[in-house]
Write a structure and sequence with these properties.
0% of the residues lie in helices and 45% in strands. It has a five-stranded mixed beta sheet with strand order 1-31-30-29-28, with no helix packed on it. It has a four-stranded antiparallel beta sheet with strand order 3-2-33-32, with no helix packed on it. The protein is an all-beta fold and 410 residues long. It is globular and about 55 Å long. The termini are far apart.
Length: 410
């Protein structure tokens, strides 16, 4: 296998902006706090709530919308760009956490936390056509993901003894498969099936170390066909993602003894074969961004977000180095790659906050929206990243806030 290496290089302004700021087209002003969907080609906006969590259906024609912090869970399926919303009836009270569409768009899985009443969230499934909602598992579920063929929901369970990783039948709730010999499953962050569905990757405990036994920290894969569980790397790791080539990408804490260890991004073969660095010496960020890195196709993007720095760094398999993509003169907040990796969206923080679309590779940028209050790409979520780009790249979600936030504690 050909080896390839990316390294972080010193920040370089690769994209010069005009004196007056990015070029504007279909520029819309949003000064009322709320959760918005914005059509990229026209600037048309649809307000879907306030502090709402959303998830796009695979065909980009519907968004599931849940308002965060509501004691009575409110979940709607909203047609895009217009049409009557379908409200889903949820008998239990609590707060909706993860929202996950099945790859075939037939069902929507979500977790429901009944604060103070259960050890963990319940696993729920809604039928997209009928709107009916069913509880599959009560009060013991962490992260969830669908199998690639939409026939199972893989979940981290939180029962006594450290938990486990289980795949449930979405119609009956029956256990279809349990990943064997998993210790401290409750410490894991992220479940991700490979593009071909052959492997499941998972990692943990994130970068708030102290959960479980340190020997169980790291990045792992499960190969159902051979019943093989393999630890690919050891040490604190965040949720892994997959390159289109079938390699695992993970962010890990570097093993350095003096001071706070920096972070690195590594590429790992799921069968334990060839591996290599993607980026290194990434500074720790407090608080850390909700999206520590993003993999789209063969591209990897990661932010550096502090009180003084707001940067997006970008690399791909065709390059030997990652590089700062956003200009030095811009504080770029909450950057997100489009589904085809040909556009980077970010908020340029200044006297006004601007939602900027930057082509990849570099070219003339465009302001899609602006506000005099605060703005972020994508929507918030207590446990999970909210939705951002629609899968077809024609819409993007943004949250207008009462003030402009940074990943910063002063």
């Amino acid at each position: 296998m050909q080896r390839w290496i990316w390294r972080t290089i010193l920040p370089i302004a690769l994209l010069a902006l005009p004196v007056g700021g990015p070029a504007r087209a279909a520029d819309v002003t949003l000064d009322e706090p709320g959760t918005y969907l914005i059509e990229v080609s026209t600037g048309k906006t649809v307000k879907v709530g306030l502090h709402a969590q959303i998830a796009w259906s695979p065909d980009s024609r519907t968004v599931a919308v849940s308002e965060i912090g509501a004691e009575t869970p409110r979940l709607q399926l909203v047609p895009v760009p217009d049409g009557p919303a379908q409200s889903l009836t949820i008998a239990e009270q609590g707060e909706i956490n993860h929202l996950r569409w099945a790859p075939d768009g037939s069902r929507l899985a979500f977790t429901l936390t009944r604060t103070g009443r259960d050890p963990g969230p319940a696993l729920m499934v809604a039928d997209a056509a009928s709107g009916s909602v069913k509880q599959l598992v009560r009060g013991s579920i962490g992260d969830i993901t669908w199998t690639r063929d939409s026939t199972g929901i893989t979940a981290i369970t939180l029962e006594e003894g450290g938990g486990s990783i289980v795949t449930f039948d979405p119609a009956t709730g029956d256990v279809r498969e349990i990943v064997p010999d998993i210790k401290d499953a409750h410490c894991l962050r992220g479940l991700a099936w490979s593009p071909d569905g052959a492997y499941l990757a998972f990692g943990g405990p994130g970068f708030r170390e102290g959960c479980g036994d340190a020997g169980n920290w790291g990045v792992w894969t499960w190969h159902p066909a051979s019943k093989t569980v393999r630890q690919l790397a050891q040490g604190p790791a965040d949720a892994p993602q997959w390159l289109a080539t079938g390699a695992v990408v993970a962010m890990m804490s570097e093993a350095k003894s003096d001071g706070v260890p920096p972070l690195s991004i590594v590429r790992l073969a799921p069968d334990g074969g060839d591996s290599g660095p993607v980026a290194s010496d990434i500074p720790r960020m407090f608080p850390q961004p909700s999206r520590l890195f993003q993999v789209v196709g063969s591209s990897v993007m990661f932010p550096i977000s502090t009180c003084e720095q707001g940067e997006a760094h970008l690399g791909s398999m065709g390059q030997r180095e990652t590089a700062r993509f956003t200009p030095e003169i811009v504080y770029a907040y909450s950057p997100v790659l489009a589904p085809d990796a040909k556009t980077l969206a970010y908020v340029s923080v200044g006297e006004q906050s601007l939602l900027v679309l930057a082509p990849v590779p570099q070219g003339e940028t465009r302001v899609l929206a602006r506000t005099s209050v605060g703005l972020q790409v994508g929507t918030p979520g207590p446990w999970d990243l909210g939705g951002d780009w629609s899968p077809d790249g024609t819409w993007i979600a943004a949250e207008v806030t009462s003030e402009q936030y940074k990943d910063c504690v002063e």
